[in-house]
Amino acid sequence: MVADCGANCARWLLCLANFIFICVSSGVLIVGTWLAADKASFINLTLNITTSKYSPASPFVSEDAEKILKEFVEPAVIEQAAYILIAAGAFILIISFLGYCGAIKESRVLLTAYGIFLIIIFALQITLILLCTLYKSQADHHSKGFLKSTLSKYYTTGDNKDAVTLSWDLIMAQMSCCGVDGYEDFRTARLFVEKSSEEGLGRQVPESCCILTGDPLLSKPADPSCIISPTQSNSYLSTGCYDKFSFMVTENLNLVIGVVVVVAATQLLAIIFAFCLCRAVGQERDYHYKY
Questions:
Q1: 110: closest CA among 29, 25, 11, 6?
Q2: With the C-alpha atoms ordered 79, 82, 87, 88, is the resulting torsion angle positive or negative?
Q3: Cα–Cα distance between 290 and 280 in angstroms, integer?
Q4: What are 147-178's pLDDT values in tens digits?
Q5: Distance (Å, rounded) from C-alpha 148 to C-alpha 162?
Q6: Residue 209 carries which DSSP code?
Q7: pTM for this model (two decimals)
Q8: Cβ atoms of residues 209 and 178 within 8 Å
Q9: Gap between the terminal Cα atoms of the chain
């Protein structure tokens, strides 16, 4: 064990921080694996816990809330979410495991690997920020293209919505916007157009593009005719979510900068602690070897 006080502080801080990340990432990985292996049991358990008359949560779950819950535990949504959880959980678990074991065992190899991984992640983040700043117009173009492709390929309406559709509905309802650039984006959404034709209502936009009443999650238009005849007074048909998000970032730029600085400072501290502890361990071993 290193005798240096600063190195000891770095060691235990690394142990504590990475132990917390190990616990969180393990939970995420377990849930993701469970979802991927047996979606049915998760869906049944979730619905039983929240909607059963014997459940502690049942007095707080209305019929509308139950409807929302059933949409979010559709098999298609669960399957897509499962792989995202597994990937995120495994990635964080591996890095946290290196940091925790390296600190607790005072292993220079593990600490070096941990520090190098963090440096790579930090460098990628800095590179991404610089590229987005220097090539803002190209970044905007590619970002819009990607978002529009998710609408055109995956967005649908009616029953059996997938994770992409539910995510877009949630974004549009919460941000009071419609599509990427406006309501015209839905004219190229193949699944949306097909489902709208099957409905036979003459639907032009989804409910989440309308001015809503009540809980936004319910996507209940204040004007029922909005989905057929959207106007500036009953919908957000010309307010694109991309421009709305850009405006929100600009309006809260100080908060965004603060979050970026805190995340960057935390990563830098972890890198510094890892290499300082690694150096202290090396010096301690050299001392014992000489004397």
A1: 11
A2: positive
A3: 15
A4: 998 888 888 887 767 778 888 888 898 899 99
A5: 16
A6: G
A7: 0.67
A8: yes
A9: 16
